[in-house]
């Protein structure tokens, strides 16, 4: 359990208008599920963390993602995408669909790399960005317009039909709101959030939807007894939908997470929900409402199966560190003739080590699934190369 209910009403670093909206909803409907609370905290129009102005992702924000560490991440992704384009027979239009694109940094880095080194590939690219937050979409537009990279870019409100190419997400699923449940002697209970006039209060009630018990029956796993367990129904649903929209090509999912048996291990007593504020992790979701990020690890067994049920074949699941090593990121550790000064070289070296860090970004998982290329051997997921 978090130290729930300890948040006083007037904390300067929270979004008071958002807090009022959450309280009003609770006063109207009664206690809401934790999932509804998290959805409002992150995505309430105009008020939620991702839907309000300000730096969120990157060194000046609250947490770092791989594209924000270095353009080398985009270069490795670019190499993998070009290989996929070749495997599909170099179609005249190759879609890269990136939902949850954040600041638009990965898109910038893939397109810049293609412009420098793969102009034939660039000519065939249609890069489609989708983000549920208008504030993040604006950041993407500002970045790509300022770098004159919009020629191959389009923004869509939702996943297009009949995609040929690759759907690619980085830390999208772990930003979706989760239900929190607990297996008790009397059966599964779900965490609800109420308001006692001074603070948010947690209470357990029967599940809001049978989908939560069904989730574990389908996995054939019991949620660990008397623990707090996070269930991301939206991620499963999103993967099924994304897979259905893919006519031909690949679905790549980068995220923090584990296979179900590891994610729902009995020793994980508090689930995996984390908050981030100015690069400090925390565990109290009621603090700094609308000003801190919230995230929970992904169940790769369930999301993988969702893709398979929509007709995709799974080609591989590796750590990000292995993926990047397979694609040759360690070349960047060599001091080259083009390194004008040692400072530049050391900056690059630090970035590579950060992307490969087995206790940090390197432990992110990379899942790849396909429609139409079940025999494909992809460099990023090649066997025989071990983690750096
Ligand atoms: C953790 S950030 C990751 C950003 C970026 N991919 C990166 O690696 O820096 C999650 C992003 O996903 C967006 N998002 C959340 N749910 C979404 C959904 N269902 N569809 C599209 N975008 C979504 C958020 O607005 C945010 O921009």
Describe this structure in words.
The chain is α/β, with parallel strands linked by helices and 388 residues long. The protein has one domain (16-323, 363-381): 3-Layer(aba) Sandwich (Rossmann fold). The protein has 13 helices and 17 strands. The protein has helices at 16-29, 34-43, 66-69, 71-87, 105-117, 119-124, 134-146, 211-219, 233-245, 260-263, 300-309, 320-326, 342-356; strands at residues 32-33, 94-99, 125-130, 153-155, 163-170, 179-184, 187-195, 200-205, 229-231, 246-255, 257-258, 274-277, 280-282, 293-295, 298-299, 313-319, 365-371. A 7-stranded mixed sheet has the order 4-3-2-5-10-17-16, with helices on both faces. Strands 1, 6, 7, 8 and 9 form a 5-stranded antiparallel sheet that branches. It has a 3-stranded antiparallel sheet with strand order 13-12-14. Mean pLDDT is 94; it is low at 1-11 and 384-388. The protein binds S-adenosylmethionine. Residues 50, 57, 65, 67-68, 99-102, 130-133, 136, 170-172, 175-176 line the site of S-adenosylmethionine.
